[in-house]
Design goal:
The protein has a domain at 25-77. It contains three helices and two strands, in the order H-H-E-H-E. It has helices spanning 2-62, 64-75, 100-111; strands spanning 84-85, 130-131. Helix 1 (2-62) crosses helix 2. It is elongated and about 115 Å long. The relative contact order is 0.08.
């Protein structure tokens, strides 16, 4: 009986030691795997960004039409003799619709031919004016 009692206590002590050392390392391993997956995903995103930037760099070096498009779009430069038209948005406030009572009165006025209808108000829209910009300075093309 004493031997079985001692064996039971040694087994319990062994299990406690096993769990004491095993579970923290498993938890740490899981945390490291999650971090590895995150870093691999970020690495893939960065590789994709590097490919995009390399492609754009090659286009800027070799494709003059792409270079001209970038210069026009991002820097706003124009060729000599070109005129740029800039359209300014209309910032005048819109008139709110009339209240429900006025709309009802307008509807009744339409039925009564003796009541004059209100005249619509038309506001003129601004006319865009051309603006001139200075000519861009393009890099020299090297001939091969």
């Amino acid at each position: 009986m004493r031997k079985s009692f001692l064996f039971l206590w040694l087994t319990i002590a062994g299990l406690i030691l096993f769990f004491w050392f095993y579970f923290p390392s498993v938890s740490h391993y899981r945390d490291l795997k999650i971090e590895e997956d995150t870093l691999r995903r970020e690495l893939g995103e960065m590789d994709e960004k590097i490919r995009e930037l390399t492609r754009e760099r090659d286009l800027l070096k070799n494709d003059m039409t792409y270079l001209e498009k970038v210069i026009r779009d991002e820097l706003g430069l124009v060729k000599p003799g070109e005129i740029v038209y800039k359209f300014v948005p209309d910032n005048t406030p819109k008139t709110p619709p009339p209240p429900a009572q006025d709309r009802e009165a307008e509807g009744n006025a339409a039925l009564n031919p003796e009541t004059p209808l209100p005249s619509p108000s038309i506001s003129p829209s601004p006319i865009p004016t051309p603006t001139k910009k200075s000519a861009p300075v393009y890099p020299r093309q090297e001939t091969r």
